[in-house]
Structure formats: structure tokens, C-alpha cells
Task: structure prediction
Amino acid sequence: MIRLAACVEYCGRNYCGWQRQAYSPSIQQEVENALSKIADEPITVLNAGRTDTGVHGIGQIIHFDTNRERTQNEWLRGVNTHLPDDISLVWTHPVSNHFHARFEAKQRRYRYVILNRPVSPSYLHGLVTWHYASLDLFLMQRAAKDLVGRHDFSAYRAAGCQSKDPVKEIYKLALEQSGPWIWMDVTADGFLQHMVRNIVGVLVRIGERLESVHWAQQILESRDRKMGGVTAVADGLYFVSVDYDAKFSLPNPPEVCRFW
Result:
């Protein structure tokens, strides 16, 4: 039995999210089906982090076990032949049986991309979030600082979140801007359901000057989701990358999207 790690890139617009569901197409289902055809045996994959409906992936990491020996080129060319155009296998890499895509992950990264202009996007529809009202980047950056560190993020989780521990540590929460493009990078040891989108929703209201710069911290300290404001849409959210111990020697993920 061989264990392989792999990197998956995908556009989430046509899927119910990563996880296999009976009622709708999922990215996991497509990946498992394609891998199973090349391995000529049923393949089940485990991933670094679930993504919701409409969320995109740049460096999603998975692992799977197989009895079949294939070269990386054979895995890539074969699997990608059987995948739809909006999902790609980027690389595969042999790992020890001690590797686990989820439990060995040290940090995970997301990027959220906002097009901030009066006119909605056309060819980027579904790939970025459009916000027509002008946003004050400085206020958003100031508010974001209060969320960095180890906190109970109960107020920033979805009502149906199944995570047993709402305490997470955010190592980085940075916002930058170039012209009409605003993007937020967030790195943490783990994420709760809708956590990134709820943070963006709060920061956008602060950036519009609809709430004070201290509102993000007040919500955090309340630990009450009802205080948390709006959840930003999934369009602009990208699962960027995962960090693992250097002993696994995994290749780098693709370069993260910035703006167009």
C-alpha cells in the first residue's frame, strides 16, 4: 500500500463545496472518481480543510492510499484527463504512512478578494466579491489587528459549525489594496465554518463607516454569533495553502491569485 499526497486546484462555482454530498456534485466526488479510474480501484481521499459552496481552492492538500504504482506524470495526466475543466491535480508526492493531510497541518491560509468599484464584474463574476460602496482600507486594517492572536471565535462561526473547539489562533490578518482591488490574507492554525467570510463581513461594514473601528473586537468578546453581522459571499474566497513539517518535503502550491 502506497500513500500519496496531492495538491488540488479548483473553481468552486459549480459545486456544493469540497465534501461529498448525496444531493449535489462536490469536488471530493470528482477527485475520487478520477483517481479511482487511474488506480483501477476505489480511492478515498482525506483533505486539509473543507471549503463551502462556491469557495475556490488554489493549494488544497489531500492524501490517499493505493495499491497501484504510477509515476507522477501518469497520475497527473491520467487524473486530469478525467477531471472537469474547473478542477486540476497540480502535483502528487509519495509520503510516509504517518502523513495525514488534516492532522499534520500546522497552518492554513485563505485569501479573500474584493472588487471595490461602482460597476459589477463581468468575466470575473463568481471569482471575486463585488462591493460598490467605497471602503476605507485604513479602518479595516485597524479593526483587523484586534482579531490577531489566540481567541474564542464563537461570534465568527456559522450557527451550524460542528467544530468542538471555537478557540483558534490567527497568526496573520493583513489587508492590502491596489486600485479597486482589496484583498485579505489570513493565516491560522485552523478555521471554523464561515469564519473568514464572517470576518470579512464585519470588516466591510467598518470600512463603509457603518460601524466603529472597535466593532470587530466587541463582536469577538461577545462570543455571540447574533452580534456578528453579515456573512460575506463565497465568491471571493480562496483556500490558498497549508504548511506541513519540512520532513514531508512537499512541493509548493501554485502562486496565489492577487488581482486582475
Summary: The longest strand covers residues 167-178. The mean pLDDT is 95. Residues 10 and 94 are 22 Å apart (CA to CA).
